[in-house]
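Q: What changes when guanine is included in the input?
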Amino acid sequence: MSWHANREFFVSWEELHRATKELARRQLPAEQWRGIIAVSRGGLVPAAILARELNVRIVDSVCVSSYDHQAQRADVSLIKDVSATTDGEGFLVVDDLVDTGNTLKFLRQRLPRAKFVTVYAKPAGMELVDDYVADLEQETWIHFPWDMHLHYVDPLAGAE
Ligand SMILES: O=P(O)(O)OC[C@H]1O[C@H](OP(=O)(O)OP(=O)(O)O)[C@H](O)[C@@H]1O
Ligand SMILES: Nc1nc2[nH]cnc2c(=O)[nH]1
Ligand SMILES: [Mg+2]
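A: The predicted holo structure follows.
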C-alpha cells in the first residue's frame, strides 16, 4: 500500500524520552519482567529507555521490516528472530508505534505470551497493543528524532 499522510507529527528526543518513561512507569513492578524484546529498528531506542527504567538487563531484538519509508509492503519480513527460544512469557515486546497493526499481529503469532507495548498508536492498530502512551490520527505520519535534524526556518513575518 502506498499513500501520502496528510498530517505530520514531529517527535523530539525530549518528548520521546518523556513518553517512553511514562510507558515504563506503567510496566511496574519491574520484577515481573524476565527481559525486553525490541522490535528493530524503531523499538531500539524505546527498549533502551525501558531497560534502564525497569532495571532489566536482558534485552533481545526481533528484526522485521514492512515499510520502505512511507510505503507499506504486503508482507512483514522477518530478518532476525529473537535469540532465545521463548513463547514470550515474562517478556515485554516494545516498538515505537503501531500503525496498521501488521507488524504486531505477525509478532504475536511468534510470541503469544508476551506483553506488547508501543509509545504511539494509531486507531487501526491500537486494539492490538497491550499498552501505549499517546494516540494519533490514522492519517498522521510520525517522524522520530533519529530520522530528523534541526534546520533553519524563515520567520512568519515577511512570508505572507
Ligand atoms: O503497525 P504497522 O503498520 O505494521 O507499522 C508499524 C511498524 O512500522 C515501522 O517499522 P518499519 O517496518 O518501517 O521498520 P523500522 O522500524 O526499521 O523503521 C514501525 O517502527 C513499526 O515497527
Ligand atoms: N516513522 C514512521 N514509521 C511508520 N511506520 C508505520 N507508520 C509509521 C509512522 O507514522 N511513522
Ligand atoms: Mg519498526
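Observations recorded in class: The pocket of guanine (ligand 2) is lined by residues 67, 97, 99, 141-142, 144 (CB under 6 Å).
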